[in-house]
Amino acid sequence: MSGVRHTELDARLREALGDGYADFWAGRTVIAALDGRTPHQALADGVPPKQVWAAVWEVLGLPASQR
After folding, report:
1. 22 contacts 40 by C-beta, under 8 angstroms
2. Per the domain annotation, does 10 fall within a domain?
């Protein structure tokens, strides 16, 4: 997945976790691969969405087809 944008990341999170839970999860789940930040914090700190998605993908144990 090259060049993931914030909107695409949001869509992928909603697909993986559901519309009602994705934002909550991304705002509260601390991920070691994001230097102990939540996905929302990492994005706010300028971490590229592609890197955030890779960390989320790993934590959630999603299939390779969603990478």
Report:
1. no
2. yes
6-47 residue pLDDT tens = 889 999 999 999 999 999 999 999 999 999 999 999 999 999
How far is 53 from 13, CA to CA, in rounded Å? 8
pTM as predicted: 0.88
Residue 24 inside a domain? The answer is yes
2, two tokens: 């090259």
Tally of structural domains, the chain: 1
Residue 1 covered by a domain: no
Collect all residues with Cβ–Cβ distance below 8 Å to 12 and sequence separation of at least 6. 4, 53, 56, 66
Please report the pLDDT score of residue 6 as a whole number: 85
Residue 15 lies in domain: 6-66
